[in-house]
Design a protein that fits this description.
The complex is a heterotrimer of chains A (400), B (521) and C (55). Chain A is an alpha/beta fold. Chain A contains 14 helices and 8 strands. A 4-stranded parallel sheet of chain B has the order 2-1-3-4, sandwiched between helices. In chain B, strands 6-5-7-8 form a 4-stranded parallel sheet. The radius of gyration of chain B is 22 Å and the shape is globular. Chain C has 2 helices and no strands. The chains are: A alpha/beta (400), B alpha/beta (521), C mainly alpha (55). Chains A and B meet through helix 3, helix 5, helix 6 and helix 13 of A and helix 9, helix 10, helix 18 and helix 19 of B.
């Protein structure tokens, strides 16, 4: 396939947390709201006058200092973020909003605060910690609304004068949905038998929408969508199987690349920083205030294993099954970042249930934050692809 | 063999490669006879337990029941070197805990579909987590509140250091990562291994101490709800429990949990019973505060593993529901006052006053006794004992009924360990140094439970703050339920090295420095 | 009277024997030594039980 025109542009945005577009938006006097967890509703931190930047630590090297502060038993994502913060890599942020999504992320941000790694020279800088529901029910929704009001809207309004009215939230949702619809439209091409976009390309584009101001991405995304519409897929695909990747935080596109280099096309991305469900539009009605609707949307669609009620737990596996069917996945890769407690359990449950109950070939792996070109991982994915192929042949044999 | 405290070389009782010790201590005639009488009482309690055929049947069905062979030895480990009031305080606590666990086991097996299969009884049972505050059950006097995880894993590891290893391995065989906390991992392993009693009208799970605990419940509920048909309510207590803007949510969770229990058991909430329990909770809080007050002086009386274990049981698992604990509180307080008046000491020499922080090694709960006997370090209090001191409302008025819901929510949010591992760094990091000052401590023993991410995440800040204040801080690493990662001697060695190299001290009882207890229960 | 004394004597003997026996068991930790010997046998028994191991 011909290279995507803007792929390098998107890739470049991923090389630094303080990327070109973040700098441009700040030059436009916009407030940069840093956050770390998918449970912070994005439209609320993309109101007029501010934009969100989900923190990553690209090109992570040594984690020595953060390992001193948090030991080697915490996940590398949380350590990499702290290390980068200590290096001064997140000093561009104007505030930091984080939920107690998991203990490790909470400790990571607390260390950032205690070590005064952010907000240097920024008088209005603030840290906010949110409680977010662990169950999807009415009580959880009330909590979510109160927390978003007290820990997102109120401080943004008081410190930076951001308009937090219902109309402003509706406008932010509209802008958010515009990005989501573009990503969904691009993602539709991944359902094709001969896909016109690789999983890697899609991961790069999707990730860019999390880490860069969205309003500065729209034109490039629209052009990319148009380009893909007429893009000719390869006559002979290099892929031997289609896989859905599900699991914990992945902001390392090299992981998707590695999987695809082993012959498995990543047709669906059900992971934190992925597009499913993170880039599904939020539909609002006029009967209820926008804040409540945004919170409900985030609560109901959340696939994070911290949701503990039975319906949510079951839904996590049903959703993977539904996506696997929709995107015609031959197998599922369940991944977890090493030392991630929530996904350690969900990986065990999900991989076992998807294999035993739903009948999918499943590969369960744990991985570091930056995978690079791990030989071990390549071997495991290659073996998985071969096993899928063998199953296909056997099934073909059975069917005559 | 002597009456005087510290006259024996306690390490000489151990035997290389043996599960058990050579013999019991001679503590002088009076104390030995007292200890012997308590041993007889324990044997009678165990004897009564095995008289029931269903309990014998359970013994041959559940692997974890083998650990209960070691009950007397657990008591011996905690009474090492103790004399006089200390010995009596320890027995008052331990013996009551033993009786309570025996009743728990008996009830579990009575209702267990595999063993007693008493359907009528089972319909009155509400299952709860091991690490769960039972406040929400204070107004259901006619229901049985039983935890399957308490006897299968929690108490089992107190009895036998290797009790959880089998279940940890089972969970890992099913793909669970080896770096999660071994406590919920073992509890999930029990469920996977089909080794949990099946009974109950319904169950209440709670997001207790950590992410692992929360997710481990998901494994258990899978079988409980879908296979055994026991409905499960997940009680989500807020994590940022000190914030005002989460309390309404927490209270509503309590209301929902009560409604769930009422629906599935047909029993109605009883406010009289609740307020009775609340009075007992307040009484225990008052006693505990008095003990802690004594511990601020040069003559601490109720401290160490006894304080931790008893607080865990009484504060969390009992929560005012069992009157016998109120009597024990009164007796312990009386003994403590007596000893305090006489300026008595639990060891022959007190060299250091320490605050023990972090999550203790469960397979070495009697480590604090060792700390005192070997190095003269007095564990004044520990993180698990520093729980809520809030007074609950006890008078039945319409306003108080509303307040009571918030009180239960507060207790649930502030269950043991959780009140420090959640809620932000202030409750874990900052309050430690307040306690160091309050208790006039000159040392901090910091348990580093290696798979407890909430604690590990503050490692560097603990060190920095200790350095700022010039307080010696000793890290003691362990893996909570798994002595294969760090053995008991490995735990002791961390203290031994620190005391010898940094503090330049010699042990009070050198026979305890290295103990051949690798194979011990 | 003699019967009463005899009963008392028997009770005293029983109590003394009971005390001597149980105190010996207590002091030399014989109870724990016995259960330590039983444990390996029990563990073998548990290994033989068929279990429905699954999530």
């Amino acid at each position: 396939m011909k290279d995507l025109r803007h792929l390098i542009f998107f890739e470049n945005l991923l090389l630094e947390a303080n990327n070109e577009l973040v700098q441009k938006a700040q030059a436009d006097s916009k407030v940069c709201v840093a956050y770390t967890c998918e449970n912070v509703p994005e439209p609320l931190i993309n109101l007029e006058g501010c934009f969100s930047a989900r923190l990553r630590a690209p090109r992570t090297g040594s984690l020595d200092i953060s390992t001193y502060y948090m030991t080697s038993f915490l996940c590398e994502y949380s350590r990499a973020l702290l290390e980068r913060a200590i290096e001064g890599g997140f000093n561009f942020a104007d505030c930091m909003i984080t939920p107690d999504g998991c203990s490790m992320m909470n400790r990571c941000v607390e260390n950032m605060e205690l070590l005064k790694t952010l907000g240097s020279g920024k008088e209005k800088f603030f840290f906010e910690y949110m409680e977010i529901p662990m169950k999807a029910d009415d009580n959880g929704l009330n909590l979510y609304v109160v927390q978003c009001r007290n820990h997102i809207l109120k401080p943004l309004n008081e410190k930076y004068g951001i308009d937090i009215s219902d109309a402003a939230i509706r406008k932010a949702v509209e802008d958010h949905n515009r990005i989501c619809r573009l990503i969904r439209a691009i993602g539709e091409f991944k359902k094709e038998e001969k896909p016109r976009i690789t999983g890697y390309e899609f991961a790069v584009i999707t990730l860019a929408t999390y880490v860069a101001p969205k309003y500065l991405l729209i034109d490039k995304l629209e052009e990319t969508l148009e380009e893909i519409k007429t893009r000719e897929p390869d006559e002979k695909s290099k892929f031997r199987a289609r896989v859905l990747v599900a699991g914990s935080e992945i902001d390392d596109t090299d992981f998707i690349k590695l999987v695809e280099d082993c012959g498995a096309y990543v047709c669906a991305d059900r992971f934190c920083y992925g597009s499913l469900p993170g880039r599904n539009p939020i539909e609002l009605n006029d009967k209820e205030d926008a804040l409540t609707q945004v919170c409900r949307a985030y609560m109901n669609r959340g696939e994070c294993p911290r949701f503990m009620n039975t319906h949510k737990m079951d839904h996590r596996r049903e959703y993977v099954d539904q996506l696997a069917k929709e995107y015609k996945a031959d197998g599922i890769i369940y991944e977890q970042m090493k030392f991630c407690d929530p996904w350690a359990y969900e990986k065990m449950m999900g991989s076992t249930i998807l294999r035993d109950k739903y009948g999918y070939p499943v590969l369960a792996v744990d991985r570091p934050y930056s995978i690079g070109t791990s030989g071990q991982m390549q071997t495991r994915v290659q073996a998985f692809v071969e096993s899928i192929e063998i199953k296909k042949i056997q099934r073909g044999g059975e069917n005559g | 063999m002597a009456k005087q405290i510290g006259a024996d070389r306690l390490g000489d009782f151990y035997k290389e490669g043996s599960r058990v010790r050579k013999r019991r201590e001679w503590r002088g005639f009076r104390d030995t006879m007292y200890d012997y009488s308590r041993w007889l009482w324990i044997m009678m309690t165990l004897g009564k337990f095995v008289m029931k055929p269903r309990n014998v049947k359970a013994m041959f069905r559940y692997r974890w029941m083998a650990n209960y062979l070691a009950v007397p030895m657990m008591v011996d480990r905690h009474t090492q070197g103790l004399r006089g009031e200390y010995l009596r305080i320890c027995h008052t606590e331990q013996d009551l805990v033993i009786k309570d666990v025996a009743n728990l086991l008996d009830s579990l097996f009575r209702g267990d579909r595999r063993i007693g299969n008493d359907k009528k009884f089972s319909d009155k049972v509400v299952l709860v987590d091991e690490n769960e505050m039972t406040a929400v059950m204070m107004g259901f006097p006619d229901l049985k509140v039983l935890s399957r995880e308490t006897p299968s894993t929690y108490v089992s590891v107190l009895l036998n250091q290797r009790a959880a290893c089998h279940y940890i391995d089972v969970a890992q065989e099913f793909g669970l990562a080896g770096d999660v906390c071994p406590m919920p991992e073992a509890e999930a392993g029990v469920s996977i291994d089909d080794d949990a009693p099946i009974l109950g009208a319904c169950a209440i799970q709670c997001n207790t101490t950590c992410d692992g605990s929360l997710l481990g419940n998901g494994v258990i509920s899978q079988r409980l709800e879908k296979e055994n048909g026991i409905p499960v309510f997940q009680l989500a207590a807020p994590l940022r429990h000190r914030e005002d803007d989460v309390q309404d949510y927490a209270a509503q969770e309590i209301r929902n949990a009560i409604a769930f229990v009422e629906k599935h058991t047909g029993h109605k909430w009883n406010w009289d019973a609740y307020f009775e329990c609340a009075k007992r909770v307040n009484y225990f809080t008052k006693c505990r505060q008095e003990w802690l007050e004594m511990n601020r002086t040069p003559y601490p009386q109720v401290f160490g593993s006894n304080l931790a274990l008893y607080t865990e049981t009484n504060y969390m698992a009992i929560c005012g529901r069992i009157p016998a604990f109120e009597k024990a509180d009164a007796k312990i307080t009386k003994l403590a006052r007596q000893a305090y008046a006489k300026k008595k000491m639990a060891a022959k020499e007190y060299r250091h006053r320490a605050i023990v922080w972090g999550v203790q090694s469960h397979y070495y709960m009697d480590f604090l006794v060792w700390l005192l006997n070997c190095w003269g370090i007095v564990p004044l209090t520990d993180m698990l004992s520093m729980v809520s001191t809030k007074e609950l409302v006890t008078e039945d008025t319409p306003e108080n009924r509303e307040q009571a819901i918030y009180d239960m929510a507060w207790l649930t949010e502030n269950m043991i360990m959780r009140n420090r591992t959640h809620g932000g760094y202030k409750v874990l990091l900052d309050e430690l140094w307040e306690f160091v000052e309050m208790f006039n401590a000159d040392m901090v023993i910091l348990w580093e439970h290696m798979s407890c991410k909430a604690l590990d995440g503050m490692h560097g800040m603990f060190e920095e703050k200790a350095r700022e204040r010039g307080i010696p801080l000793v890290w003691v690493s362990h893996d909570l339920f798994d002595p294969r990662i760090i053995s008991r001697q490995g735990v002791r060695d961390q203290i031994n090295s620190f005391m010898r190299t940094v503090m330049q001290e010699e042990p009070i009882d050198p026979s305890l420095e290295v103990l051949p207890d690798d194979q011990s229960w | 009277m003699t019967t009463f004394l005899l009963v008392l004597k028997i009770i005293a003997i029983v109590l003394v024997v009971f005390f001597v026996l149980t105190f010996t068991v207590y002091f030399f930790n014989l109870d724990m030594k016995l259960t330590a010997a039983i444990e390996p046998w029990l563990l073998k028994h548990y290994d033989k039980i068929d279990r429905d191991q699954h999530l």
